[in-house]
Structure formats: C-alpha cells, structure tokens
Design brief:
CATH architecture of the largest domain: Orthogonal Bundle
Number of helices: 20
Strand content: 5-15%
Largest sheet: 3 strands, antiparallel
Shape: globular
Number of domains: 3
Radius of gyration: 23 Å
Number of strands: 5
Order of helices and strands: HHHHHHEHHHHHHHHHHEEHHEHEH
Distance between the termini: 36 Å
Bound molecules: 2-acetamido-2-deoxy-beta-D-glucopyranose
C-alpha cells in the first residue's frame, strides 16, 4: 500500500493517549512542573499522616489547598493499565492520592484502540462453528502474541523444579497474568468461556489455567483469609475492586448486571487469574466457577465469607456474561495506543479501503475505544 499521509491520525492518537493518562506519567509530569510538584509534596505529607507535624498549625487548610490545586493537574483522574510496566508503582500512586473520588477501581477502560477488518465469508462461519473451544485454541495458535504468551505460561506452569519436585507457583501465576493482561480479550475470553457440552471439553477448559500449579493445594484455605491476603497487595486489591464493581449483580436489570456491561465483567474476572483468589471452573460436570477457598470454619464471619464466595458461585451477572458471550469476528489488525509501525500499516490499510472499497474485504468496524468494555459488550446478544 501507498501511505496516504495520515493527516488526522496522529492528533487522534495523542488525544487518546491524553485521555488514558497513567498515574506514573502523571506523577512524573507533576514532579517536573514547578507549580505542581510542591503541591504533590504537600499532599504526600498529608497522606502519610505527618501533615500536622511537618506543615504546622495550618496543616488542614494546606492539605485541602493542595488537593484542590491538584484536581486540575494530570494526577486527577489518572489510572493504570492492567499488566503495565511498574503496575504496582502506578497503583500505589492511585490508591495513595485521594484524588480519584469518582473512580471505583484504578484500571483504564480506554486503553485500546483497535481496528477490525472482517472477511465477508468468514464472519458468518465464525458464528456457527460447532466446537468453539477447539476454534479458540486454533485462533490463539495463529496469533503471534497469544501463541507466545500461552506457550510461556504453560511451560512455566508444568515445569517441576528439580529441588522440590513441585512447580513454581509464583512464576506460573506471573505468566498467567501476563497472558490475560496482554493478549486481546477476543482470544483469552474465548479460550476460557467457550461453551462445552461434554465432560472432556469441560475438563480441557478447566485445565486451561493449569489448576494443579496455579492454585490447587491439598486443602482449601478459608476465603476470608485469602481475601485479606489479596487486599494487602495493590495488584490483587485493584483486580478484586474491579471485579466487584463490574460484575455486581442486579435483580432489576435485564442483563443481570448493575453496570450492564458484559465485556467489562469478563475482563475483570480474568484479571483475577494468577492472583491469590484465582477463580476457575470447580469441576468438569458443571460450569460453576469459584476461587480455591472455603467458608467452613468461618465462625462469626460466616456471612461475610458466604457473600464473598457467592459473588463467584451465585452471581447472575457473572453467569449471564459467560452464557451470552459470542466469539468475535476474525480480526485482521489491531492496535494499542502506542503507535507502532504495524499499527500505522493497519490504519493506512483501513483508510485505503475506505477510499476504494476492496473486493474481498469490507470494513465492518472501527472501534475507537474510548470506553472499551462497553463497545465490546455490543458483541453480546
Ligand atoms: C512521619 O515521618 C517520619 C519520617 O519523616 C516517619 O519516620 C514517621 O513514621 C512518620 N509518622 C507517621 C505517623 O506516619
Ligand atoms: C472429570 O472429573 C473427574 C473428577 O475429578 C475425573 O475423575 C474424570 O476423569 C474427569 N473427566 C474427564 C473426561 O476428564
């Protein structure tokens, strides 16, 4: 293709990047700004609880002033990207700066801009195939990133260390998180949520995340204890907050979900895989899911425990999301907000096709995902 000089593309991308400002970048840009950085320093002291000592008698108003000044800085509304480099640092900025009153969890919903070009014949076939689990595995194998990261986690999870004869669980979980954070949901969700009608299929689906290494043990720990461990870790705590927000059930909503967003709920569910509360299918004869923990011996915390576990096992929103999900149309190109040579090619191809409609391909969708999960949810029935 000849590159038509992409007039409107670069500004578009920079707008998107600005809207999806991550807290690390926001923190850096504040620190290097002479108006912003003293405010940030003040706020840090306020947050650390040392405000009144270091800031003197006027501390309360100084803290309030710092907060209101920072509300117009890039830190306000900054978020983090799942699986990003230094995710933990980003999350700690998020949770420690009380500047996000309107946000419930720290993760972006606007991190991906992708383009879909669908061959006309294939798109119909895609919807009627018999064995979606098998198709999902094949689709993953032909995508470079999916294939690579899947191979990585499988080998990390099945490898036994010479010393103990056991697998390396932390390494397995890290590799699983990389897979679910970096590979587009079209692949990962289809592998995990494809429908099964027999136990062999259900068993393969259950084995997708290598339970024997990623979470199973000789006995189930108590769920409240697991929840505490999770909340003590920025990443796990953020994933859980995202899951509880996006998969909150509702009896009155037709979708079963309070947020009404299927894509977001499934994305939040997979965000927990590789954490202390990794959820998975409990057996090969049902499609119930739960983390590896139990509520027996919870004593006075029985109710709290049951409601935590019930959020997985008895959640109309989560079960509807899984049931209604449909495979995505075949994608020819996709892109993130970081502009690469390949994504530019893809855009160029798209613009080229728009100008001169092609015989075999027609463009069906240009997702500019300001709100990634909600547009994704349009692919559900
Ligand atoms: C206050 O700050 C000092 C160091 O500047 C630290 O050692 C101390 O633990 C802090 N106190 C509180 C209550 O955070
Ligand atoms: C289903 O699970 C049971 C219990 O773990 C196991 O014995 C059986 O072999 C599994 N079935 C298949 C088809 O893998």
């Amino acid at each position: 293709f000849i590159f038509p000089h992409s007039v409107s593309l670069l500004p578009l991308l920079s707008v998107l990047s600005a809207l999806c400002l991550d807290c690390l970048v926001a923190g850096d840009s504040c620190s290097s700004d002479e108006n912003c950085s003293p405010r940030l320093r003040t706020l840090r002291q306020c947050v650390a609880g040392n405000g009144s000592m270091k800031l003197g008698p006027g501390a309360r108003s100084q803290c309030a002033n710092a907060v209101s000044a920072l509300l117009s800085s890039p830190l306000h509304g900054c978020q983090c990207k799942r699986g990003m480099k230094k995710e933990k640092n980003c999350l700690s900025i998020y949770w420690n700066h009380v500047l996000q009153p309107h946000l419930i969890h720290p993760y972006f919903s606007c991190d991906i801009l992708f383009l879909t070009l669908v061959p006309s014949a294939d798109s119909d076939v895609g919807m009627t195939t018999v064995n979606r689990c098998l198709d999902a595995a094949k689709a993953c194998n032909v995508d470079d990133l999916c294939q690579k990261l899947r191979t990585e986690y499988v080998s990390a999870c099945i490898k036994l260390t010479a010393k103990s004869g056991l697998c390396n669980r932390p390494k397995c979980n890290r590799a699983l998180r990389r897979f679910f954070d970096r590979v587009p949901a079209d692949y990962t969700h289809e592998l995990l949520f494809c429908p099964c009608t027999d136990t062999a299929c259900a068993e393969r689906r259950r084995q997708t995340i290598v339970p024997s290494c990623s979470y199973e043990g000789s006995e189930k720990p108590n769920c409240i204890m697991q929840m505490r461990i999770c909340n003590a870790d920025y990443v796990c705590r953020s994933r859980l907050a995202q899951f509880q927000y996006d998969c909150e059930p509702s009896k009155t909503s037709a979708s079963g979900c309070k947020q009404g967003n299927y894509g977001a709920c499934l994305l939040a569910y997979t965000g927990l895989i590789g954490s202390t509360i990794t959820p998975n299918y409990v057996d090969n004869s049902t499609s119930s899911v739960a983390p590896w923990c139990s509520c027996s011996a919870s004593g006075s915390q029985r109710d709290e425990c049951d409601s935590f576990l019930g959020f997985f096992t008895d959640n109309i929103c989560l079960s509807e999301c899984r049931r209604r999900r449909r495979p995505a149309p075949r994608r020819v190109c996709r892109m993130g907000i970081t502009l690469t040579a390949r994504s530019l090619d893809c855009l160029t191809m798209l613009f080229h096709l728009l100008q001169r409609p092609h015989k075999t391909f027609y463009w069906t969708e240009l997702y500019i995902l300001m709100d990634f999960p909600s547009i994704m949810s349009s692919r559900f029935d």
